[in-house]
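Researcher: Sequence recovery benchmark, item below. Answer with residues only.
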């Protein structure tokens, strides 16, 4: 195809591609971060009133055994706590979420559980799925009335939005029909609690009687017996005493009340309110769903305004999405602008600079098209890692070669053949160099779990952009360059500074060619320095992704009441809100009324929403704020153990380790008392390491009121155990008896004693039971009532009991800290390994596996290089740039205080690709001169001198293309900043080595070719 045909095709196809790319851009799913969670299923089973030990024995263990063989499951852990069993199952990468959920349901159907225990599955949403949180505020309605609106108006409306997986509430009151039992009335009428519950259950039902015919008309038969009001409930007959019916209303006070509270929500200065949490369906477009949520909230606010109620959002993921994507594109735009400026300064002419710059929009629209076709979302990781300086490298080389032809024929018109010939000269090295860079990204596809979900979008989009740029470079750029440069242009631009640099480089290279050992020594020193810096660099799994909010895990003194926890939460919010950087402080104490949180009143989760950074006090940055924030909490709230994280990061850590920490030490065993002793010794040992914060994740044993049945006494009086347990669960625990339907609403019925009785051990002992003869005896005659301690939460890991020890160290890399901790524990903590064992786990393991993939990058590059050159020594020579590039990247990370994590690992992969690309182009040019008949040193000198400008240009534009990202601050810039720091720091030293490629001479001297071509050109340095 001729250049004219290529240009005609370009002017026809380009507008179509751009329009299609713009169209697909509007259809892309936009999120701040990709879905980081593995495919997981949570099985929740609630049995109100059962302690952790009973939940473990009767619910969790049978379920774990039934679920153990679920196909594709790689990990299972569980929490058994008061009234709740929570089992989390994690499946292998690539699993179909809905297929796995079906397999879990099949397994659950085989489990044998106590009556009334019904397992349920979590909504199809992940730890990054919480996209919207709000509170309901009112100046006219009480909390009960607000809760009614939340349950029956707001939540149903939001749940109908496509893409919303769930809407959960926390705080407030859950309304129910209550019979507040009077123990004296029970005793007077000789009625037991079991009789009351059975009477209520037997007297609220409807029935269907089929059809009857009456004449020519058919009628449906309905039997109506459901309870719909307190009056209906009160008329139910429980027993007959002396010929007089005893009704429910005779046994206590009937009222509309609320369930026994499990948790309390506080927002800023309001100590008791209610919130809603909107969860995103996995795979849904967060931006579109949030638009629909905003529209529905506006509609609901108009509907609720006459009642004096309003929905007030305090966490909106759209701010994070808009800030992240906005910052990413702002940084990309600055990078593209700098690339164009650098191109103009190097080339000195706007025409070739614009020719090279054409590659950028073509690559970008191609990325959008391919992302749309492959179903990828637009987020920080998918678009933020593209270095447009690297994208234009091939175009720079082609344009620069054609520009050299233009300079060599300053007074002649360039023919199409001149452009084609020049492009062919570098086409193969460019193709191969691009393949090298794409190959460098291939190991990202092998990353596992969350690391893979972070890195694969980067690998895909960079590969898309590079392939588009390569296609553009070998087809379009030669034609455009010829079109721009074909006519003589006087005077030719001469970059005097670049010329002086070129002459100085050539002279220094000629001098260095006579001293190859000097270069060899410098390279060896770089190897040693890179190894030393790498060993001292800290490591982590994920960079600290700034979400614009904090998430606090707060442990209070064990066993405190919910009311006391609420008072302590108010103190916490007061301290947090004293910071001018904070706009909202929200505390969740205990668990929600639906009971699906495995927390006790001794635990608080706090959401701290920060103001936008421009509104912060002058001179305050995030790092300084966090230091002052932690210091004040430690100083003013010493009784609280506070762990600081962020909402999404906390959810990811929780899913990976189950302990909301990047590093966890599991202690397995059976005897919790002995396990806590061992765990305490381990914590004390780890804290001897400077900079260490460690603690036992599970709460200490909590006080329990134990009612232990005396079976012999119960048998003497003819009392069944179920009568005693029913009394405990219903009258004291407030367990629901039956549902009541009122219109489209459903409420529970409960029959329990007043708090004054339930909170008094003597009053509990006086609660009546009915014997087989019909007489009444107090509970204390058939049961021993006492106080003792028991486990608040019992955790299992892979079906085994375990205690989790969380640990962190701000002075050592996690691998080094783990190794040091293992040595100290082996020396100072002694236990029977036959009964107990230790296991280190957490997201740091994923970081180690991800970092190990860097070795694959070098290996795959070596294979490709050998396939290109057929000489192992030249292949190794091209890879010599890797350790020097690594050295530059490590120096930059140390100077900026960053660690080796997923973002910096991807940065090193990109750096290796660019550095080896330049080395490939340089070696190929040297080899070309060798084939043309030059001796070794002459080929090295001339080949390096010819590649001076393009190598320097490609490295400079790659560096400047990433410079805005390296210097960026604000939400959504963390990954780009760390990744760009590696590239900017590494390319400087890598470029230096690439330009001074004297090791070629050393290798060839050691291993001379069989025959060396004729004499060098006059004036060249000879070997």
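Model:
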């Amino acid at each position: 195809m001729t250049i004219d045909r290529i240009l005609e095709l370009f002017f026809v196809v380009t507008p179509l591609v751009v329009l299609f790319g713009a169209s697909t851009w509007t259809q892309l799913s936009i999120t701040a971060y990709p879905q980081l969670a593995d495919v997981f299923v949570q099985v929740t089973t609630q049995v109100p009133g059962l302690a952790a030990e009973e939940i473990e024995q009767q619910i969790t263990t049978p379920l774990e055994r039934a679920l153990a063989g679920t196909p594709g499951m790689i990990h299972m852990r569980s929490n058994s706590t008061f009234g709740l069993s929570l089992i989390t199952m994690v499946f292998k990468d690539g699993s179909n979420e809905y297929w796995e959920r079906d397999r879990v349901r099949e397994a659950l159907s085989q489990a044998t559980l106590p009556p009334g225990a019904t397992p349920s599955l979590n909504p199809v949403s992940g730890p990054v799925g919480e996209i919207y949180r709000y509170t309901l505020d009112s100046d006219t309605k009480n909390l009960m009335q607000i809760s009614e609106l939340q349950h029956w108006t707001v939540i149903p409306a939001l749940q109908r939005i496509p893409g919303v997986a769930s809407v959960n509430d926390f705080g407030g009151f859950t309304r129910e029909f209550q019979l507040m039992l009077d123990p004296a009335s029970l005793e007077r009428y000789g009625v037991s609690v079991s009789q009351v519950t059975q009477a209520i259950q037997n007297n609220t039902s409807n029935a269907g009687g089929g059809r009857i015919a009456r004449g020519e008309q058919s009628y449906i038969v309905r039997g109506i017996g459901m309870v719909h009001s307190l009056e209906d409930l009160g008329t139910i007959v429980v027993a007959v005493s002396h010929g007089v019916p005893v009704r429910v209303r005779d046994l206590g006070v009937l009222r509309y009340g609320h369930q026994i509270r499990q948790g309390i929500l506080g927002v800023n200065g309001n100590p008791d309110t209610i919130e809603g949490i909107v969860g995103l369906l996995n795979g849904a477009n967060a931006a579109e769903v949030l638009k629909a949520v905003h529209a529905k909230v506006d509609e609901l606010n108009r509907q609720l305004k006459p009642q004096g109620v309003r929905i007030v959002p305090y966490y909106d993921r759209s701010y994070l999405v808009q800030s992240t994507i906005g910052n990413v594109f702002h940084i990309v735009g600055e990078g593209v602008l700098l690339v164009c400026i650098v191109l103009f300064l190097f080339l000195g002419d706007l025409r070739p600079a614009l020719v090279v710059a054409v590659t950028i929009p073509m690559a970008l629209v191609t990325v959008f098209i391919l992302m749309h076709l492959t179903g990828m979302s637009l987020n920080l990781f998918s678009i933020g890692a593209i270095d447009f300086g690297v994208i234009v490298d091939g175009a720079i080389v082609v344009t620069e070669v054609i520009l050299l032809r233009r300079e060599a024929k300053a007074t002649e018109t360039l023919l199409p053949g001149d452009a084609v010939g020049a492009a062919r000269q570098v086409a193969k090295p460019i193709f191969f160099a691009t393949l090298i860079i794409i190959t460098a990204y291939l190991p990202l596809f092998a990353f596992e779990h969350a690391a893979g979900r972070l890195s694969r979008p980067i690998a895909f989009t960079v590969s898309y952009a590079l392939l588009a740029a390569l296609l553009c470079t070998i087809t379009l750029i030669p034609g455009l360059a010829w079109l721009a440069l074909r006519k003589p242009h006087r005077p030719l631009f001469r970059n005097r500074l670049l010329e002086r640099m070129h002459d100085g480089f050539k002279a220094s290279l000629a001098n260095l060619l006579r001293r190859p050992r000097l270069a060899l020594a410098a390279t060896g020193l770089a190897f040693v320095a890179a190894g030393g810096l790498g060993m001292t660099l800290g490591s982590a799994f994920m960079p600290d992704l700034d979400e614009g909010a904090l998430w606090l895990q707060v442990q209070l003194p064990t066993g405190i009441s919910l009311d006391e926890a609420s008072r302590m939460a108010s103190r916490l919010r007061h301290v947090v809100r004293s910071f001018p950087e904070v706009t909202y402080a929200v505390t969740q104490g205990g668990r929600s009324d639906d009971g699906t949180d495995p927390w006790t009143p001794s635990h608080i989760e706090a959401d701290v929403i920060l103001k936008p950074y421009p509104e912060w006090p002058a001179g305050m940055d995030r790092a300084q704020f966090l230091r002052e924030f932690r210091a004040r909490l430690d100083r003013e709230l010493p009784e609280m153990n506070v762990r600081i994280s962020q909402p999404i990061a906390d959810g990811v850590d929780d899913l990976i380790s189950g302990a909301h920490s990047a590093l966890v030490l599991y202690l397995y065993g059976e005897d919790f008392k002995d396990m806590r002793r061992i765990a305490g010794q381990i914590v004390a040992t780890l804290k001897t390491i400077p900079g260490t914060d460690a603690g036992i994740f599970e709460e200490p044993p909590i006080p329990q009121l134990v009612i232990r049945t005396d079976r012999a006494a119960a048998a003497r009086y003819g009392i069944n155990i179920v009568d005693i347990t029913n009394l405990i669960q219903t009258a004291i625990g407030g367990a629901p008896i039956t549902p009541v339907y009122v219109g489209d609403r459903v409420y529970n019925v409960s029959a329990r004693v007043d708090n004054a009785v339930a909170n008094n051990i003597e009053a509990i002992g006086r609660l009546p039971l009915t014997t087989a003869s019909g007489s009444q005896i107090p509970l204390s005659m058939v049961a021993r009532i006492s106080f003792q301690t028991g486990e608040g939460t019992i955790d299992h890991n892979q079906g085994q009991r375990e205690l989790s020890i969380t640990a962190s160290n701000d002075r050592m890399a996690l691998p080094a800290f783990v190794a040091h901790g293992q040595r100290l524990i082996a020396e100072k903590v002694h236990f029977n390994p036959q009964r107990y064992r230790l296991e280190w786990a957490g997201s740091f393991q994923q970081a180690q596996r991800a970092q190990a993939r860097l070795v694959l990058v070098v290996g795959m590059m070596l294979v490709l290089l050998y396939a290109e050159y057929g000489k192992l020594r030249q292949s190794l020579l091209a890879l010599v740039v890797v350790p020097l590039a690594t050295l530059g990247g490590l120096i930059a990370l140390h100077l900026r205080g960053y660690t080796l994590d997923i973002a910096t690992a991807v940065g090193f992969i990109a750096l290796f690709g660019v550095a080896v690309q330049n080395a490939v182009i340089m070696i190929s040019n040297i080899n070309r001169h060798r084939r043309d008949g030059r001796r070794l040193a002459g080929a090295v000198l001339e080949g390096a001198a010819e590649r001076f400008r393009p190598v320097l240009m490609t490295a400079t534009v790659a560096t400047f293309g990433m410079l805005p990202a390296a210097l960026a601050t604000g939400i959504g810039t963390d990954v780009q900043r760390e990744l760009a720091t590696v590239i900017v720091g590494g390319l400087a030293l890598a470029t230096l080595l690439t330009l001074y490629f004297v090791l070629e001479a050393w290798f060839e001297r050691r291993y001379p070719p069989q025959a060396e071509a004729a004499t060098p050109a006059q004036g060249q340095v000879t070997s």
